[in-house]
Amino acid sequence: MFEGSNVALVTPMDADGAVDYSALDALVDWHIEAGTQGLVAVGTTGESATLTVDEHVAVIRRVIEVTAGRVPVIAGTGANSTAEAIALTQEAEAAGADGALVVTPYYNKPPQEGLYRHYIAIAEASTIPIILYNVPGRTGCDLAPATVERLAAHPRIVALKEAVGDPQRVAELRQRLSTPFVLLSGDDGTSADAMLAGFDGVISVTANVVPQLMRRLCDAARSGDESATRAADAPMTGLHQALFLDPNPIPVKWALHLMKRIGPGIRLPLVPMQAQFETPLKTALADAGVPLEN
Fold this sequence. Notes:
Layout: E1 4-8, H1 21-34, E2 38-41, H2 53-67, E3 73-76, H3 82-95, E4 99-103, H4 112-124, E5 130-134, H5 136-139, H6 145-151, E6 157-162, H7 167-176, E7 182-185, H8 191-196, E8 201-204, H9 211-222, H10 226-233, H11 237-242, H12 250-258, H13 278-287
């Protein structure tokens, strides 16, 4: 269900920081028309850290409503409190989400046994599929492959988004975890290599601005055609880097505003992108074939 090109959707906002639901609706339709195979609502890129609980649930519901079953909708429901993660996952289930993306608890640095119990508690408290999410560069803890393998024995824990970007980690995970367990890259810059090495898809920031290119990359890589994969990835190479010149989602929201897809809003403690990054990001967008007005 979750294979291929999945986009980590931004949450569009007006200049005052209010959620722009009309722009969100348009993004959902654009992505589906462009071939995106799954939508992630209110993940890190969707500014989950600064939305209120009511807003968090409302955005998930809106994405599900507008998607209307055309592609799977994955709800971001992670938290550093197990009870909060359970509550958000249950809200996502009630809203009709197809799965929940649950990031490892951040800041409190639980040991592997704590991570195991955290995810088992969430899986036991809901009935929707759970996607583990490991991004130690943001959370301060690393979900070890052995723990992932242990968790994969639970029938509702069906996938992992792995954002380490290490070829050895990719190989170990694929060796430990046979299908139907789904492995998704969470690192755009190495996603082509990960899929060629046996990963099943990506949850992508880059797909926010070039959904058709990311779908083309996924199709080529999942078919095992290395030449076509490299050709598909080449126009996005600079974009994978430029979208992280400032902390995500600052650059991708700036790019989408430049593309007239969303308003300028972003919430503190994030701020608008630094001026010195504008030219490199514009260059990367142009290299990827994104039309920009002067």
